[in-house]
Amino acid sequence: MTESALESRVEQAAVRRRQAASLIILYGILLAVATVLMGTFMFALLASLKRDPLEQPFRLAFEQIHPANWVVAWRLGRQGSGDAFWGGFGPSGDVTFELTYAAPADVELVEPAIEVPRRRPGTGMAAAVYRDFAADHIVDWTIEHAALEPFEVEVDGVVTPWQRATWTIRFRHDNEGPRIERVPLTAEAPLSQTLVDATLPPTRIERRGRVASWENITPGSLGYVFNNYRRVIKESVDLNTGNSLFVSWFKNSFFIAAGRVILTLVFATMAGYALARLRFPGNRALFMLLLVSMMIPVQVTFISNYLVIRDINLLNTPWAVIMVTIVSAQVLIMKQFFQSIPKEIEEAALMDGAGYWTTFYRIVLPMSRPALVTVTIMAFQGAWNDFFWPLVLINSPASAFTLPVGLLSLRNAYGGAGDWSLILAGAFMSTVPVLIMFMLFQRYIVDNPIASGSKE
Amino acid sequence: MKITTTLITALSLATTPVLASDVVRISGWGGNDLVVVNSLLNEVLADDIRAAGITVRYEPVEGDFAQYLTNALSAGTAADVFYVDSFWGAPLFRSGAIAPVSNANQAVADALIPALNEAFMYNGQLMGLAKDFNTLALQFNKDIFDDAGVAYPTMDDTWHDFRSKLQAVSTNLGDVHGICVVPDYARFAAFALGTGWSPFNEQGHTVLDDRFRDAFEFYTTLPDQGAGVMAADVGQGWMGGCFGDETTAVAIEGSWISGFLRDQAPSMQYGTVGIPVHPGTGERGNLIFTVSWSVANDSQVKDSAHKLIELLMSPKAQQWVLESGLALPSRESLGNNPYFNGTGQEAEISRVVFNGASDGYVEPFAFAQYGGDWKSIMDEALGAALLKERTIDDAIRHAQQQFDRLTGR
């Protein structure tokens, strides 16, 4: 091997090492970013299932994700209403619930004071919606007591004898009233007595340990795990129609996002193609004007836009939000993409007798799928997450809000009472459509058919 | 025959009362108020509103209502009737965008608690009618006091009694603090005003005198004295949060805490008494938090707007508001309502909060044209003293300098 050939091999090896190092660093960064993003997503999902998403320290294992509790919730749901998934308490409801208390052997174990309180779930609009209470429809209330084997507790080497007993509560629906979504329960016992087991873990321990409290003892398995999600849909209601506001907000956001996507695609492709291909006086000036307009902050033009929309009577309509920001950077993306398409392809189409419109519609647009998908995703994501314009342009009625503004109203109604679980569930649901969009269409962004459209 | 029929028809149409009604747009914030206003309009007052020839369009606003209102008044898109918070009302009153209370509604104004009307006076004119209000009161957790073997707080407690009880609770139980304090004038004022100090003197200046220092020292040293803790140190942002999770024995909040406790601590056994009295003056201090129904000056249906407010403030409506437990009505005569004699804890908190509006040295939660600028100076001083960033005298001296620049001296 000559000296120059050897030097060449050494250089190639060094280049490969550098390339490998670059790839490792790049993929490492991408993996780290993905882990952080997905980790955040997973934490948000877990927190949205908890009763108290702000609990400190954050627990990864909590009641709602224990399969044993799903089975119990399933059984209780079926007992309460025949609906094992979403539970409730309705005609034919016959529920059995057990509580086991323990106390030192020298302390009397007394029957806990059981109550099904007339308790409304949450605050805000729910206060006006819930008018039926399980307590008003319970008959045949029985409590049975069974002493269990004594046991011993060792603390710091000192063994103390303890006793325990289980109280079985059974109650039935009066068979005439409505199906009620939840059956709250409280059990009050002296401080000397400790709740050691229950059919379902208590939602909270109150009054410094005196009271064990359950929000719903007939939840059904899905109702148990996804209670916050059920609440966000059922408790945010239009007080005039009784319809779920959250569902309306979802629909409004979809409608506005779809409208923005369609209009953005139409304007961005046409304007982008014109700027990329058509030669006319003022072409460059128009392009520069477009760039300058993109640099103007929305706050500068907000008042004039608002007044225009007011004067054409579009305030408080989805059309105002759809039309207020149709095109911006998307025109730039399309222009750059169209410029990357070899002119020969269009010239070949023209030679075959196609007009400008046919070339654009039949040849250029189908080849622009990656750019179109990118613009679609960007426009959808921008419209879906837009907060400013819907907040300014749609004030009333509540059923006309978009999701971000609706979530703000939930925060106003429930955040003051520290009821964050419902708000977080709503916020989590609002992220899902964008995520699905990215998952479905990301391959189109990577895929680029232009390379196969022409020969070098 | 045909002519006769036509004439009769024309005559009957001319003598029939006009069926067309004025559309009055009303606006306020959303949240829990949605329930109150919606129920008032659709359940309690529906017939009266119809009889008055008014059609109401209710437009609750989410987000920053003050900002919305400023923008809407500027753009001419504001509702005819809307809320004005006493805290940020002065700049709007000064702008001329709000119409004074009409002569027809003077009788309603006269029936309200006088301190509530003071909150909406501007240049000698009443600019809105207080739709409801809140004051501060002392809530205490009965289980905590029982477990600690300490007597419950009472209406007659002085500051010293109050602090001693909190210290005893904290010492006897170990795992509970007396109170969690926040660097917020909206709570500290309960003590500052009790000394006889006033946020503005007769010249309109803020002077932090010895009376103020007395309250400032008492409040900011509660943690040092073993009677309290900073709310942030127990992971909370307000006194109600500490109280709700039983970290503290007492809280100083308005009746809004009852909704929070109903949700977060539904089994809690709590009582409510007035703010402790200052040992020197023998009086308690308090703030009034209130919101008015006001009318836009450029409303095209001003008469109907005033009429609608009259209905919304009628005894019938206020009685419903009181009994629903959603807010406290502003008519003075409702102080004798049987609801307040109830033995339940929510009736008790309503009674104490209602009476708080006319008990001792009471000021509206409003700071003339200075608004948030005034309050932020006070909050900064409280924060600096509680966090030991400044000594008490240093914090007061620094705040005084800032007030001198803001309000003059």
From TrEMBL, chain A:
Keywords tagged on the record:
Cell membrane, Membrane, Transmembrane, Transmembrane helix, Transport
Question: Domain ABC transmembrane type-1 spans what residues?
Answer: 250-441
Location relative to the cell: Cell membrane
Q: What membrane topology does the UniProt entry give? A: Multi-pass membrane protein
* Gene Ontology BP, a term: transmembrane transport
Q: Which PROSITE patterns match?
A: ABC_TM1
The record ties this protein, via InterPro entries, to: MetI-like (IPR000515), MetI-like_sf (IPR035906)
Origin: domain of life: Bacteria
Spans traversing the lipid bilayer: 21-49, 254-275, 287-307, 319-338, 387-410, 422-441
User: What's in the GO CC field?
Assistant: plasma membrane
Q: Tell me which family the UniProt entry assigns to this protein.
A: Belongs to the binding-protein-dependent transport system permease family.
Q: Which PANTHER family match?
A: ABC TRANSPORTER PERMEASE PROTEIN MG189-RELATED (PTHR43744:SF12), ABC TRANSPORTER PERMEASE PROTEIN MG189-RELATED-RELATED (PTHR43744)
This protein is called what?
Carbohydrate ABC transporter permease
Instruction: Provide the taxonomic classification.
Output: Bacteria, Pseudomonadati, Pseudomonadota, Gammaproteobacteria, Oceanospirillales
Automatic annotation (TrEMBL), chain B:
Transmembrane parts of this sequence:
none
Q: Which Gene3D superfamilies match?
A: Periplasmic binding protein-like II (3.40.190.10)
Q: Which GO terms describe its biological process?
A: maltodextrin transmembrane transport; maltose transport
Q: Name the Pfam families for this protein.
A: SBP_bac_1
Q: Which residues form the signal peptide?
A: 1-20
Q: Which GO terms describe its cellular component?
A: ATP-binding cassette (ABC) transporter complex, substrate-binding subunit-containing
Q: What keywords does the record list, in alphabetical order? A: Signal, Transport
Stored InterPro entries: SBP
Report the GO molecular function annotations.
maltose binding
Per the record, the similarity remark reads: Belongs to the bacterial solute-binding protein 1 family.
- Its protein name is Extracellular solute-binding protein
Natural source organism:
Salinispirillum sp. LH 10-3-1
